[in-house]
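quick q for whoever's on today - can somebody do inverse folding on this one?? i tried earlier but teh output was garbage lol. tokens:
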């Protein structure tokens, strides 16, 4: 979900105090706060499908799984704060966290045409500041397509795309599933290029 600028300038501490009193979620970047827009029904269904599939495997590893109401702090300075659609952390400090995560190993964003460029570019550049992050996942809400960026042993990000009929691998948590599992209960129609598209 992309955010709309609210033109409010705050310190990180002011943002956290203010955000705790708001009815809607706001992300925080460089002193500015951004109201989060609502996602589509396919967006929500895909996020639910993924978290349902991950719940038991993540728990069995002693890790924690979160959806889009959980903030992630990207630096010790408290800038920025984002709300990923799905995140997993296995770090001991995050197991005691109550306000925000600091050490996620897996972050997932469900993207639409209006958010994909931001999630793939600017937001990914920010997420790469997290030393704990091992995988960044972009799941299309328009067609059966998953893109995964993985940090390799040389500390370089490698790109792996997945399409219909393939098994998606989340190596950071040793989990895999058919890509179609992520799109259960999402109505699909054929598109002009032969790929399934989602009915919004």
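ok took a stab at it. sequence:
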């Amino acid at each position: 979900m992309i955010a709309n600028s609210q033109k409010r300038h705050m310190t990180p501490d002011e943002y956290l105090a203010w955000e705790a009193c708001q009815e809607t979620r706001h992300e925080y970047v460089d002193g500015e706060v951004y109201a989060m827009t609502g996602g589509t029904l396919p967006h929500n269904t895909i996020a639910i499908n993924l978290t349902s599939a991950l719940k038991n495997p993540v728990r069995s590893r002693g890790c924690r799984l979160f959806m889009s109401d959980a903030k992630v702090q990207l630096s010790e300075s408290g800038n920025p704060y984002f709300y990923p659609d799905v995140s997993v952390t296995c770090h001991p400090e995050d197991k005691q966290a109550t306000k925000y995560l600091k050490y996620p190993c897996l972050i997932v964003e469900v993207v639409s045409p209006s958010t994909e460029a931001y999630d793939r570019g600017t937001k990914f550049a920010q997420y790469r500041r997290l030393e704990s992050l091992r995988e960044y996942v972009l799941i299309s809400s328009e067609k059966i397509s998953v893109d995964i960026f993985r940090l390799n042993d040389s500390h370089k990000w490698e790109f792996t795309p997945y399409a219909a009929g393939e098994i998606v691998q989340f190596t950071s948590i040793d989990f895999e599933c058919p890509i179609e599992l992520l799109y259960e209960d999402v109505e699909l129609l054929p598109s002009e290029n032969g790929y399934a598209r989602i009915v919004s």
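fwiw Residues 41-60 form the longest helix (20 residues). also The chain has one domain: 39-198. so keep that in mind when u check it
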